[in-house]
C-alpha cells in the first residue's frame, strides 16, 4: 500500500536561515505520529508545509502517491486531503459553534443530511451538547479546543494535522484532554500527525515518534525504541538518561 504521506528531501529556509534541513519520512494510513521537539526546532513549519500554508524550497511532498508540492506543482491547502487543528483554536469569532463546525463541510459541498449526521456524531463524541448555538467566546478553553477538533474532523480529512492543540490549556484540563484525545483518535481510526513539545503527550498518543531537533530528525521510531535504544545523546537526554 502507498504511504498516505511521503516527504523526500524537503527543506525550508527563512531569510537564508535553514529552518528545516532536507528531511524524508513516510506515514501510513491509520498511523498516529507525534513530532516531538523543543520550541523553535521547526515543528510548526513542517506542519504548515504539509498543510500547504507554506511552500517547500526543495524536495517533494506526496499524498496518497500524488505530488502536492514539488518542482512542478503546488496543490493549495483546501484541495489537500488534510485538515488542521491549531494551538490557538482559530475559531471564527462571529460564527456560532454550529456554524464553525459546518463551515468546512459547506465549503466542500457536503450534503446537508450528511452534515447533520456528522454534526450529531461529533457533538456526542466531543461532548458539545448544549454548545452549538453559542459563540466561541461563550465557551471555555477546553470546549473551544474540542470545537476546533470537531471542525477539523467534520471534513473527514485523510490526515488530521494538529499543532500543539493542548498547549494553551491549563494543566488539569490538558491531562484530561490528553487521554480523551488518545481514545478519540483510536476510536475514529484517524491518521494523525501531532506536533508537541510534551513528552507525555507524545508517549500517550503516538504509534511512532519523530524527534526533531534544530530542523533535522534525530530519531523516528516507536516510543519504546526511543526509550530502550536512543540514537543520539539528545534523545537519551529527553528520555531522562543522565551521563
Ligand atoms: P516550532 O514550531 O518547533 O516552535 P517553528 O517552525 O515555528 O518552530 O520555527 C522554526 C524557526 O523558524 C524559528 O527559529 C522561527 O523563528 C523561524 N520562523 C518560523 N516562521 C518564520 C517566518 N514566517 N519567517 C521567519 N522565520 C520564521
Ligand atoms: Mg510551533
TrEMBL record:
Range of residues in the leader sequence: none
Keyword Iron: yes
Domain ABC transporter: start-end pairs: 5-239
Gene Ontology molecular function terms on file: ATP binding
Keywords in alphabetical order: ATP-binding, Cell membrane, Ion transport, Iron, Iron transport, Membrane, Nucleotide-binding, Transport
Entry protein name: Iron(III) transport system ATP-binding protein/putative spermidine/putrescine transport system ATP-binding protein
Organism (species): Paenibacillus tundrae
Boundaries of the shown chain within the full protein: 1 to 243 of 361
Amino acid at each position: 500500500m502507498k504511504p498516505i504521506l511521503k516527504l523526500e528531501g524537503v527543506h525550508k529556509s527563512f531569510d537564508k536561515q535553514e529552518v528545516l534541513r532536507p528531511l524524508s519520512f513516510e506515514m501510513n494510513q491509520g498511523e498516529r505520529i507525534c513530532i516531538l521537539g523543543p520550541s523553535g526546532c521547526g515543528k510548526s513549519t513542517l506542519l504548515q508545509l504539509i498543510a500547504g500554508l507554506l511552500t517547500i524550497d526543495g524536495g517533494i511532498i506526496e499524498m496518497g502517491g500524488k505530488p502536492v508540492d514539488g518542482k512542478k506543482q503546488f496543490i493549495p491547502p483546501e484541495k489537500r486531503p488534510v485538515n488542521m487543528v491549531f494551538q490557538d483554536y482559530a475559531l471564527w469569532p462571529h460564527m456560532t459553534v454550529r456554524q464553525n463546525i459546518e463551515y468546512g463541510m459547506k465549503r466542500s459541498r457536503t450534503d446537508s443530511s450528511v452534515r447533520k449526521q456528522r454534526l450529531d456524531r461529533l457533538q456526542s463524541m466531543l461532548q458539545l451538547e448544549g454548545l452549538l448555538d453559542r459563540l466561541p467566546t461563550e465557551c471555555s478553553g477546553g470546549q473551544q479546543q474540542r470545537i476546533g477538533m470537531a471542525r477539523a474532523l467534520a471534513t473527514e480529512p485523510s490526515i488530521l494535522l494538529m499543532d500543539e492543540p493542548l498547549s494553551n490549556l491549563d494543566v488539569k484540563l490538558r491531562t484530561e484532554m490528553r487521554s480523551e484525545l488518545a481514545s478519540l483518535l483510536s476510536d475514529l481510526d484517524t491518521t494523525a500527525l501531532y506536533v508537541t513539545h510534551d513528552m507525555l503527550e507524545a508517549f500517550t498518543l503516538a504509534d511512532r515518534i519523530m524527534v526533531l531537533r534544530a530542523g533535522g530528525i534525530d530519531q523516528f521510531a516507536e516510543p519504546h525504541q526511543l526509550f530502550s535504544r536512543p540514537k543520539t545523546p539528545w534523545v537519551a537526554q529527553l528520555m531522562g538518561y543522565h551521563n
